[in-house]
From TrEMBL:
This protein's name: Serine carboxypeptidase S28 family protein
Single Gene Ontology BP annotation: proteolysis
Record key words, sorted: Glycoprotein, Hydrolase, Protease, Signal
Species assigned in the record: Blepharisma stoltei
Transmembrane segments: none
């Protein structure tokens, strides 16, 4: 899984606002005693003030999750949060997450696990808290009051979970949260993901399900036969995977390319492509074509040899993100009873995969995600949750009963994947999506008033 982030596939027109970039001296270790001696790193953030009513407007804090944060750009296809900010006369801030982009606490690549010593969710949540306190102080002068403004924290996917965890842990710092496709429940063995790939693709008919199985059977049999070069050649990925200790990583790469099509609302396109071919080899070729078309088949995000690279570039997130999964959250995608991926991608594989990526002396141990989950409550009020009906990640989201204080909006449509509600609204949107957006706006406005 590559990226859990809410992907941007496409373009929108030019936007009429000014965005400025700043850097905050963030504390490296919030739990160091005394904290004054903990050291700082530069945490990047972006500010749009064009819509802000300085005296009375709230602050919308968009949390960039596990990837480089670029703020709102001309290629941002998910402008709905900014539109809601505008309607509420809000200041709009995007905050980069520690260990991604340029907001890197420690750069010394020679220190093995010490590199990621401060890379955990408690530190990330404390970053947000300290940042809000700092901004509140900084705004006193221009707002001509010491009473802080109201903050709405917003995020999608992992960042959606952060927004819900944050509102719950620091209720005095944020008035509300908007948690889109929020993976609030850490789960080690996440076979429900695979189950949803089945549920979603079955909407296109049993043919699609059977096609996916035939591709999986083909690649697993070729793996057993030691015949993987033919397959990696098809994906132009032979040079990347040739350095891997075991070509089993190619099974993960191809299975996830299909799953990501579903995750990002392209299930119909995936099924059409698969069904247009008859032999398993031709169906596999179709996977390489659609993966390429939608930019979802980057071998560097899967190959162990690439994930082991300690020289993390600004635009690369995979090594850092796997650390969070291998050490805190799990969400390791195993085959369900519906077998939407090769049977070899079981927990034995995942344990091996995490060990390979972080080949530290003594090895690493997969997390007890029950303990992670126990430390991360998401049950505060004033949080609006959303789910896309096709999105496999929905099985890690809030599975409680929807209430007025903590509404859960399930958005049903053929292309309703991960973080669908964030997309820029347009005239062809299905009624379910428009209705969900109306509710989101109403809830946020109501919580800001109260
Ligand atoms: C961050 O710290 C550096 C070094 O102490 C200082 O020069 C800079 O002004 C600080 N930046 C902010 C935004 O406070
Ligand atoms: C680490 O490197 C990044 C990118 O070059 C830089 O922005 C950041 O300030 C560095 N962090 C530290 C703690 O030196
Ligand atoms: C290896 O792949 C080639 C190319 O598709 C195929 O013709 C051959 O049968 C495969 N070998 C085995 C042992 O499956
Ligand atoms: C692989 O590379 C060839 C030649 O550069 C190109 O025509 C083809 O579209 C590429 N296929 C994929 C799946 O990237
Ligand atoms: C995973 O699959 C491999 C290959 O079939 C098998 O050897 C291993 O025992 C399986 N592990 C688990 C936990 O089922
Ligand atoms: C975590 O909790 C689940 C459900 O209660 C349980 O089945 C599982 O054994 C627990 N895992 C660990 C490692 O304690
Ligand atoms: C998301 O979907 C799952 C599975 O259908 C459901 O259990 C959960 O309640 C939903 N959560 C949200 C936030 O909509
Ligand atoms: C409208 O939005 C949907 C969902 O984001 C997108 O798939 C579709 O291409 C958009 N249509 C137009 C005409 O922009």
């Amino acid at each position: 899984m590559v990226p859990l982030f809410c992907v941007i596939l496409g373009l929108v027109g030019a936007q009429n606002f000014t965005q400025k970039v700043f850097y905050y001296n963030q504390t490296i270790d919030h739990f160091h005693i005394p904290v004054q001696e903990a050291g700082v790193f530069s945490q990047r953030y972006y500010v749009i003030d064009d819509y802000w009513n300085v005296a009375s407007g709230p602050i919308f804090l968009y949390l960039c999750g596990e990837s480089e944060c670029k703020g709102v750009t001309s290629t941002t296809k998910s402008l709905f949060p900014l539109q809601v900010a505008k309607e509420n006369a809000a200041r709009y801030i995007s905050l980069e997450h520690r260990y991604y982009g340029v907001s890197i606490p420690i750069n010394n690549t020679g220190l093995f696990q010490q590199i990621f010593q401060y890379h955990d969710v408690d530190q990330a949540l404390a970053d947000i808290a300290q940042f809000i306190r700092y901004m509140n102080f900084q705004m006193q002068e221009i707002r001509k009051t010491t009473i802080p403004p109201k903050w709405v924290v917003i995020g999608g996917s992992y960042a959606g979970a952060l927004s819900a965890w944050f509102r719950t842990r620091y209720p005095n710092l944020a008035t509300a949260a908007w948690a889109s496709s929020a993976v609030v429940r850490p789960i080690l063995d996440f076979s429900d993901f695979d189950k949803q790939v089945y549920i979603s693709t079955a909407k296109s008919g049993q043919n699609c399900v059977d096609s996916i199985k035939s591709v999986n059977n083909l690649i697993q049999s070729q793996y057993i036969a030691g015949n993987m070069t033919v397959i990696t050649d098809l994906f132009n990925a032979t040079s990347v995977f040739s350095n891997d200790p075991d070509q089993i990583t190619v099974l993960w790469y191809i299975a996830d390319t299909m799953a990501e099509m579903v995750q990002y609302g392209k299930r119909v396109e995936l099924c059409q492509a698969l069904n247009s071919a008859s032999s398993p080899w031709d169906k596999l070729k179709q996977v390489s074509i659609v993966g390429n078309t939608y930019g979802l088949a980057n071998p560097n995000a899967y190959a162990v040899s690439a994930l082991k690279n300690l020289n993390i570039a600004q635009n690369v997130m995979d090594r850092q993100w796997w650390w969070q999964q291998c050490q805190q959250f799990g969400w390791l995608q195993t085959p369900s009873e519906y077998q939407m991926r090769p049977s070899y991608l079981n927990m034995t594989f995942w344990n091996w995969y995490c060990q390979q990526i972080y080949s530290y002396p003594g090895g690493i141990t997969l997390p007890n995600t029950n303990i992670t989950a126990a430390g991360l409550s998401y049950k505060a009020n004033n949080i609006v949750y959303t789910n896309g009906s096709e999105d496999p990640w929905q099985w890690a989201s809030n599975n409680a009963v929807s209430t007025e204080a903590r509404p859960i909006l399930k958005i049903e449509c053929d292309f309703c994947g991960h973080c669908i509600d964030f997309k820029t609204p347009n005239s062809t949107d299905p009624a379910s999506l428009t209705r969900a957006r109306t509710y989101i706006k109403a809830y946020i406005a109501q919580w800001l008033r109260s």
